[in-house]
Structures are given as structure tokens and as C-alpha cells.
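Next up, sample data:
>
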Amino acid sequence: MTKALFVMNPISGAVKKSGIPKLIDQYIDHDKFDYKIRYTEHAGHATEIALDAASSGVDVVVAVGGDGTINEVGRGLIHSNTAMAILPCGSGNGLARHLSIPINIRQSIEILNDWNLHTLDYCTVNDIPFFCTCGMGFDAFISQKFSTSKRRGPLKYLEEVLLEGLRYRPQVYTIEDATGKHRYEAYLVTFANASQYGNNAYIAPQASMSDGLLDVIVMEPFGIMDAAQVSFDLMNKTLDKSSKVKTFKAKKVLVRRNDAGPVHYDGDPIIMGTEVLVEVKEKGILVVCNREAEDVKKLSPNAVQNAVSELLNDFSDMNSSLRQQSRNMMAFNKRLWRKLTK
């Protein structure tokens, strides 16, 4: 009999959890699993529960909640023989969506029943583990604002993005990896182990949790005319084709910035200093996966999405060129006017 422990955060996300214990009992394979349920009581409690479960011989700890709960459970299970499974009930459910774990609770329990195990990568940011994404810049700034909000969910997140987006000033980052040092002025710098933030916003469409590499995304400053293109690319798995984005892969990255500030890991914000070290830990956590999601083509954009993305990028490049020509003409007119009025 497989020992399973469900760890439930009663307040995470926008999903009511009062009916979940009944669904677990109704749909779990009782011939395969002997299970218990525990509720978290404070921040960090899920990690304590998971650590105790791993040392007590529990076969699988099931995180019932969002990416924050999954992060806490995962931290307690890294480099152990205890697997992690997911019943996604959060606001964004980024890791679950990347792994094609259904948001429907009954269907996600069926994934657990299927018992398809894979050992996947995780990452650390200044030695703090994360499993989906971490980043600094605008996304970390929004995560910090979002964490203090009483309202949750994608609409609240979108509201924060729209309110703050046009006022946010890009920062300068020096990024060092095995190829050398590179200096960027960037709106955000994201490090992805998985492909998306959550709510199907694909920050790193090509990211894999089994390639031993980070996907590094540097988003350059962009104006209001470019916002539609960037938004489309983010939601349609084509951001890596955007003219405003640079992407590369690395095992370890050191970022230097001028000032301390927020960094998010799996959506949770924390203040870090001017140096931030991000690295991948290969094959560090055992995860119950969706057997039908192992075809990487499921993450690929279709031909229409690619065509629209290319069209928007062409329009953005043309718009940038026109703006530059306009600035050049204005500068020429000013010089001419000064000569004529001497």
C-alpha cells in the first residue's frame, strides 16, 4: 500500500477547499493508497510537514494549493525518495499547468492514481529553492504588490500590471554566466525552470524541467505601442520570438544590480541584495506527472500563433523605425532652425 499525505493550505488561491476532502475520498484509488490529510497553520508549515513525511517513509506528499504551497512542500522533499504530487487550487497554478496537471480536482486525483513518476530539476536563488520561475524587475515588483492585496486571482493580477506597468522604470543588470558578462537595461529578468508564470502566461515557452538548464529571459524596455505585441506573445507561447526579449540557457547565472530590491520565487516576493545567484539542481525532486503530457509538442505554438506573432513583431519594428526617423527629423529641424536664426 502506497502511503500518501495530502497537505492543504486552507487559504491559498481563490478556490474554496471545504469540499476537497470529500472529493479525495471519492476518487482516490483505495486499493493503491493509504492516505491522510494535514492542514497548514502558518508560513513554512508545509515544508515542516513534508520533511517529517519524507523522514517517516511516506511515499508521496500531495500539495493542495497554489505555487506557494507547492514550493513549500517541494522544499521538504528535494533529494529524498518521497514524491510530490499536485492538486492545483491556487491563483495561477504555474507549475501544475506546465506539467499539464488538470485544474479539475477529480482529474488531478486521477493523475495521482496513475502513479507516473519522473525525477525533475529544481533551481535555487541565493540558495532558496524554486520549481517554476524566479525573477527580478517588474514581475517581482508586481508580486510584492500582489502579496499584500486582499483580492486574488488573474483579474487582480491584471489590474496591478495595468496600473503600475507604465510607471515602472527599467533597471540596469549585469548578468554573468559561462560565456562571460553582459550588461542590460531591462524591464525584467526572469529565470525559468518551467514554461509559465501561471494562468497560461508563457514567459519561457521552451523551458524544460529535465534539461539541466535555466531559461533566462531578459525583457527590454518597451512603449505603449509594443504592449499589445508583448501581451500576445506572453499568452500564446511566442515570447521567445519577440523583438523585445532576449533568451538564453545556462546552468548558473550571477546577476549584479545597483540596488537591493524584490525578487520573487514561485510568485512569493523577498528582498535580496545587489548580487543574486541563480542555479539549476539537476534531477533533484521526484514528481507525479501526467503521462499524456510528455510530448513536448503540447507546449509549442501553432502556425497561426507564429504568424500573428511575426506580424506583430514586424509592426513593432516598423513602428520603432518610424519613431527613430521622427526623432532624427526633429533633431535636424532644430539644428536647421538654430543656423537660420543666428
Summary: The longest helix spans residues 303-340. The two ends are 93 Å apart (CA to CA). The CA atoms of residues 37 and 135 lie 33 Å apart.
